[in-house]
Amino acid sequence: MLVGPYTGIDVGTLVLMVVLFVVAESISTHVLVDVKEAGISPSSAVALAAVVLVGPVGAAVVGFSCCLTLRRQALVKRTFNGAQYAIAGFATGHVYLLLGGTVGVPNQSDFPGIVLPYVVAVLTYTLLNSLLIGALMWCLGLTRATPGRRPQRWRPLIALEVTSIGYQMLGLAIAAIWGAVGIVAPLLILLPLFIARWTFGQQTAEARAHEATLATLCQAVETKDYYTRGHCMRVAEGSAMIAAELGMSAERVQKIRYAGMLHDIGKLGVPTKVIQKTGKLTDDEYAAIKLHPTRGYEIVREISFLDEALAGIRHHHERLDGRGYPMGLVGMEIPESARIISVADVFDCLTSTRSYRNAWSVEDAIAELRRCAGTQFDPRMVEALVRAVSREGWQTPDITEPPGGRYGATEDGDAPATGVPAPSPSKNGAGTATVAESTSAGVVTGGQDR
């Protein structure tokens, strides 16, 4: 920008483009991307219009004005964003000129020849922005798993960047009518987008409200058992990892995540003494446990936005071999969402400390899931989880001794068994019950599902 040249650039047009870019960038919409937040704004349309109206240097100035956005943001972030947009605008402008594009308000005679250079410019702008953001994420370590944090997934971010191409294509329309109506041109083009942005913002706020409501229900379930703290949220995360690994749409991933959050909601109807029992369950107690999927379905079936999640809640304890509950479904009769949650549920159970045993290692848990694939679990879901965990890692819960020192204690008051190593699924000695010995998905003790 210091080098220029600025000859031939209309200063009034440049100033107006800067103002429009700052306004558009200041009202970016927050969207939920794979459970994390990202932003999208119509500013990219203004940036591409600047490429046509004021050329590469002018587009760089317009992009760098991102530093002036009216948002709470650290100086280093403002500087990076401004530099990112300036570099993308400058490079895009030169690509546009190289392919025969002209700077200034397009005339009717410029069409359709101007379309190809502009489309390539749009693709260049998107590619450069993606590369710069990717480089930033790599430098910050966001693409690598670290303790307490999983790496950022690329697929949702790529989808978001591709979606923004729709905004960028409108830049040519802004440039085309700029000569006739001036500053009103962006308003005519972007006003419908601002209205759509407001509507989308309302939907995002509603999604956040849904998330908060379901999280509260999760906490209600987990108050009944000290050892299940965070279990519902981890199952939700594991289920979402599997669904995303299978290539499901973002909407389906979210529905399955909801099902993971609420899969044990029916335990609100199970007596607390049964949930917290450390010894072998009686037949009546086990029958009460087996009712929780149906009870969960009855509790939440009127919540319309759950949709596909309802089937996952009701059938997540079914088995491929038909020995599950509540309906004894076989194979592909079991809804896909339920087959996903079944794997995520057991994986978290195995890798978590419970009142009746220590946690298993991630490696042993994966080995057990694979051993039971085809009889209890859908092999496709198991392998999807394995791929996701190997790439993103899995944060096991850190559960310490609960109040009263109940860890590992039996009904007869035996001493706590804190220090006893986790049982190995490959060495099934006397007294060790594996997942396959259960009548359904879930960690077992004495041959009974919990």
Shape: elongated
* Residue runs with pLDDT of under 50 for 5 or more positions: 32-36, 405-450
Helix content: 55-70%
What is the spatial order of strands in the main beta sheet?
A: 1-2
Strand content: under 5%
Quaternary structure type:
single chain
- Secondary structure tally: strands: 4
The helix-and-strand class reads mainly alpha
Whole-angstrom Rg:
28 Å
What is the tally of helical segments?
Answer: 15
The largest β sheet comes out as: 2 strands, antiparallel
Element order: H for helix, E for strand: HEEHHHHHHHHHHHHHHEE
Q: What is the terminal separation in angstroms?
A: 65 Å
Q: What is the mean pLDDT?
A: 80
What do you see in this structure?
By secondary structure, this protein is mainly alpha-helical. It has 15 helices and 4 strands. 56% of the residues lie in helices and 3% in strands.
Summarize the structure.
By secondary structure, this protein is mainly alpha-helical.
List the helices and strands and how they pair.
Layout: H1 11-26, E1 29-33, E2 36-40, H2 43-64, H3 75-98, H4 115-139, H5 154-181, H6 184-222, H7 231-245, H8 250-262, H9 272-275, H10 283-290, H11 292-300, H12 309-315, H13 336-350, H14 362-372, H15 379-392, E3 444-445, E4 448-449
Salient structural properties:
450 residues, elongated, mainly alpha, two-stranded antiparallel ribbon, 4 strands
